[in-house]
Amino acid sequence: DAKTTQPPSMDCAEGRAANLPCNHSTISGNEYVYWYRQIHSQGPQYIIHGLKNNETNEMASLIITEDRKSSTLILPHATLRDTAVYYCIVRASSGNTPLVFGKGTRLSVIA
Amino acid sequence: DTGVSQNPRHKITKRGQNVTFRCDPISEHNRLYWYRQTLGQGPEFLTYFQNEAQLEKSRLLSDRFSAERPKGSFSTLEIQRTEQGDSAMYLCASSNQPGTQNSQETQYFGPGTRLLVL
To answer: What percent of chain B is modeled with pLDDT above 70?
Structure first.
């Protein structure tokens, strides 16, 4: 079973920041937080991952709370093309484990 | 395009028939994963290869399912005697083993093969 809890859906106005929350209260010290997204009828797309420090790349920022029990994925300027299901996943640092997906958050970016 | 490719993209078959899907991973990726996704659900793990060795299989992989990666490059997933419950999107992902113990691998997914069993 997935070790994360996410809201089933969210809306965001185009051009505004989209903040997607994820709870992972049972995360272990050696587990990373990964985010993927899946646009309709496509395969999941890697976005970002982190352990305890905040991370930023060209797609998004990942903010992890100090106790690591929750995190937020931030899309700074959402566009219509960001409409997708976003999955938050925790994964052991050994790395050679399959990804365990929950149901994710369906983000709708509205013009 | 140097991403993960999957063929066919769509397959319609009758119950009881056998089907085979192919996945071509990103060049030189030594790990290859198969997942299945049904409508409204996230992908579920089926099996995983490191090079040509099949290292893990989930309970979802019944004896009607078989996967191979004979030369450690492309992989095939075969479903024998298909059932309507096999209708799903079959996703393939590949990754490279991290160079150091503390590095993380990232899985890159293909577009999937959508199977419909009538």
So the answer is: 93
pLDDT digits (tens, 9 = 90+) for B28-54: 899 999 999 999 899 999 999 999 999
Give A31's contacts in chain B (Cβ within 8 Å): none
Residue of chain B minimizing CA distance to A100: B44
Q: Which two structure tokens, joined as six digits, stand for A1?
A: 């079973």
Nearest-Å Rg of the Cα atoms of chain A is 13
Give a three-class secondary structure readout of chain B.
Answer: CCCCEEECCEEEECCCCCEEEEEECCCCCCEEEEEEECCCCCCEEEEEEECCEEEEECCCCCCCEEEECCCCCCEEEEECCCCHHHCEEEEEEEECCCCCCCCCCCCEECCCEEEEEC
Cβ–Cβ below 8 Å for B31 and A98 = no
Q: What is the mean pLDDT of residues B94-102?
A: 70
Partners of A45 on chain B (C-beta within 8 Å) are: 109
Average pLDDT over every residue of A33-48: 95
